[in-house]
Amino acid sequence: MKRIGVLTSGGDSPGMNAAVRAVVRKALYEGMEVYGINYGFAGLVAGDIRKLTRRDVGDIIQRGGTFLYSARYPQFATEEGQLKGIEQLNRFGIEGLVVVGGDGSYRGAYALTKRGYPCIGLPGTIDNDIPGTDYTIGFDTAINTVLDALDRIRDTATSHVRTFVIEVMGRDAGDIALWAGVASGAEQIIIPEKGFDITGVADNIREGREKGKKHTIIVLAEGVMDGKEFAEKLDAIDNFHVRVTVLGHVQRGGSPTARDRVLASQFGAGAVEYLKADKGGLCLGLRNEKIVAHDIVDTLDNMKHKPNLDLYKLNKEISS
């Protein structure tokens, strides 16, 4: 394989640029050409494709977001969209494709794989909800962004003796809430993978106050409900002086951490190695600190992401 393409799709995450940089630099090192596809699968179908040089990826490893841009493109779920995408890849002579993104992006790579086109999926999402990997590109940066916000909110929560509900991202996964909650010393973590009783939450707040606590920090994963609704449920029980902070898209931005830069670089270089060996239909992951490859069809059909619920148990034991 001498000519490959790379695109980023779905929600952006810190480290995507580092992954693309690694794909380009590794491919050039191996004597291959790389074509960047702007705006994900939408740009693929539209033929928004350009050759990338070493200079194009200079000074981007530290930048958040994605310099190839991203876009939602549900039409790629159709046969027509997929065939148009393959037509553009053939027109540019691109023999293999690296797709960096989350679940929806993997579905696009999955569809191309089923049609015989070699793809490599790289897990790029702050949600950390991709099966086949312990960590995704951008997750570490996101939880550190959340942690910084939680540390600041704790200051004002203590000053005013208030209860703060912090709504964090993660789609249907509780990983961001789990990791940031434990790291910040949050009193309670509410995630989709574990049920909760609002009366029990209220009792926990009261118990904390009886022990002399001046504040309560509750980290709420967006997959459970929104922060306003959660606060209303608490207020219906008692006046806990609840304030809600929705961190929103600030969690997606910012310069990637060292861990995300290294992980993205390993994934990007690994993708090139597989395509150079004419191996497609794979997605890369991190298992026990080692880069591994899985069949992308098997991954999406048969694997399921599971958060580290030991952290949930740990927080229950040490937060009181």
Describe it:
This protein has 320 residues and is of the alpha/beta class. The chain has two domains: 3-138 and 256-302, Rossmann fold, CATH 3.40.50.450; 141-253, Phosphofructokinase domain (Rossmann fold, 3-Layer(aba) Sandwich). It contains eleven helices and eleven strands. It has helices at residues 16-29, 40-46, 79-91, 103-114, 139-160, 175-184, 198-210, 227-235, 258-276, 296-302, 309-318; strands at residues 3-8, 33-37, 49-52, 96-101, 119-123, 163-168, 188-190, 216-221, 242-246, 282-287, 290-295. The strands form two sheets. A seven-stranded mixed sheet has the order 3-2-1-4-5-10-11, sandwiched between helices. Strands 7-8-6-9 form a four-stranded parallel sheet, with helices on both faces. It is elongated and about 70 Å long. It starts with a strand and ends with a helix.
Q: Summarize this, please?
A:
Its EC number is 2.7.1.11. The protein is an alpha/beta fold and 320 residues long. It is built from 11 helices and 11 strands.
Please describe the structure with a list of short key phrases separated by commas or semicolons.
alpha/beta; Rossmann fold; 2 domains; 4-stranded parallel beta sheet; 42% helix; kinase; Phosphofructokinase_dom; allosteric enzyme; ATP binding
CATH topology tier name of the largest domain:
Rossmann fold
CATH class of the largest domain: Alpha Beta
Biggest sheet, spatial arrangement of strands: 3-2-1-4-5-10-11
User: Which architecture of the largest domain does the CATH hierarchy give at level 2?
Assistant: 3-Layer(aba) Sandwich
The number of E-state strands comes to 11
Content of β-strand: 15-25%
Major β-sheet profile: 7 strands, mixed
Number of domains: 2
What is the C-alpha radius of gyration, as a whole number of Å? 21 Å
Helix and strand sequence: EHEHEHEHEHEHEHEHEHEEHH
Give start-end ranges of low-pLDDT stretches: none
Distance between the termini: 57 Å
Query: Roughly what is the average pLDDT, rounded to an integer?
Result: 95
Taken from the alpha-carbon principal axes, the silhouette is elongated
Number of helical segments with 4 or more residues? 11
What class, by secondary structure content?
alpha/beta
Considering DSSP H and I runs of 4 or more, what fraction of the residues is helical? 40-55%
